[in-house]
Amino acid sequence: MPFGFFKKKESEAQASRSTISAPAASTLSIEQAQGLLRSIESARVQKLALRLAPVKESAADSLMVIRELASDMEQENLKLEDLEQRYKSVAENSKKTVVSSLRREASTEFSLPQSANDAKKFKEKFEAMMNRFGEVSGSHSKMLNAFMKKQASKIRDEFAALTKLLNETRAAMSDFEQERAPIVKCSGILNTASQKASSIRSAEASLQSIEGELKNIESELQ
Q1: How many CB atoms lie within 10 A of CB 148?
Q2: Which of 51, 186, 62, 60 is nearest to 119 (CA)?
Q3: Helices 88-106 and 30-75: crossing angle, nearest 10°?
Q4: Which residues lie closer than 8 Å to 194 by C-beta, 6 or more apart?
Q5: Are 54 and 47 in contact (CB under 8 A)?
Q6: What does each C-alpha distance from 126 to 26, 110, 165, 174 come to in angstroms?
């Protein structure tokens, strides 16, 4: 009876060991797992690029309108009343600054991301452009509102459209980062494992070298 009990326990342990040892076909090396993670991240980036494609197109349309408005502003003469003539040179310089700044920022081009780093740059580039637009329109708002009301109104409409697109970009990036977080965490674990495996291989090679030297010394002593 007792012997039968131990035989049963031993067979259960063997079954347990066979369950833990997964078949070779279902195992992955660290390099294979890293490759799989890269494939998963690539698919996530492609999904993000599809989501950002209409944002990119709409932003390009708004920037084209802003470039056209800048050209209109450059060609249009400032309408100054008699009492405002003394401010003509200041207003003209302000107009030139606004036109130059609008053209420079409106020439910004966006590329759909091909990697996670590209996606980050897409958002940062959009944010930087909008910040500079805000600085220009804010510092020269009096000139725009006083002498170029028509263009100022249209520019504000395009800024509002671009701000909405930026918010869509931020939302898309937030979703992307949330989906990517487990990939980044797993990738970090695999990198650590790869480094430790490399250290172990190096230590084993060193040990084998030492063992070889010991055998040579033993042979010499004999």
Answers
A1: 22
A2: 51
A3: 150
A4: 30, 31, 34
A5: no
A6: 44, 8, 9, 15
CA 218/CA 222 separation, integer angstroms: 6
Residues 52-85 pLDDT 10s: 999 999 999 999 999 998 888 888 776 666 545 5
Burial of 202 (C-beta count, 10 Å sphere; 0-12/13-18/19+): exposed
Helix (H, G, I), strand (E, B) or coil at 172: helix
Kindly state the tokens that stand for 5: 């009990």
**Could you tell me which of 177, 174, 53, 163 has the C-alpha nearest to residue 111?**
53
Q: Rounded to whole angstroms, how far apart are CA atoms 76 and 91?
A: 13
Look up residue 81 and give its DSSP letter: -
Q: Which residues contact 36 (CB under 8 A, 6 or more apart)?
A: 28
Question: Mind listing the pLDDT tens digit for each residue in 126-155?
Answer: 999 999 988 887 766 666 666 667 777 888
Measured CA to CA, the distance from residue 131 to residue 60 in angstroms comes to 17
> Rounded CA gap, 182 and 219, in Å?
55
Task: Give me the residue label for tokens 């805000």.
Answer: 134
User: Buried b vs exposed e over 166-188: b needs ≥16 C-beta within 10 Å?
Assistant: bebbeebbeebeeebeebeeebe
More confident residue, 115 or 190: 115
Residue partners of 170: CB distance under 8 A and separation at least 6: 123
